Amino acid sequence: MPNQTSSSQGNRAQKNLPISNTTDPMPTKYRIVQAGWGSRTNFQASYGLGMDPDGLEEGEAILNVLLRREMEEWEERKERK
Predict the structure, then answer these.
(1) What is the pLDDT of residue 29?
(2) Cα separation of 43 and 1, whole Å?
(3) Is the whole-model pTM more than 0.90?
(4) Distance between CA 17 and CA 57 in Å, rounded?
(5) Where in the chain are the domains?
(6) How far is CA 81 from CA 15, 70, 75, in A?
(7) Where are the compositionally biased (Polar residues) regions (predicted)?
(8) Is 56 exposed, middle or buried (0-12, 13-18, 19+ CB in 10 A)?
(9) How many helices (H) and strands (E) does the chain have?
(10) What is the pLDDT of residues 8-31, one digit of tens each?
(11) Is the pLDDT at 6 greater than 50, yes or no?
């Protein structure tokens, strides 16, 4: 039988989060990839990059730029609230 205590505690913890955290979460590389491409493989392919070490390194550099931009926009939205 699954431990329902930990599950219900997790739900309570999520409900106690500030609304801004749940409706406008902080950007992450994972969220950027999932929202725009669905998977890292699709992201890499959209830039003509393979899943080999060189392609992944270049993809990581692109993601770092995208993340910086998303973080700046997210911070601006937070300041306006």
Answers:
(1) 98
(2) 40
(3) no
(4) 35
(5) 4-80
(6) 20, 17, 10
(7) 1-25
(8) middle
(9) 5, 0
(10) 444 444 455 444 456 889 999 999
(11) no
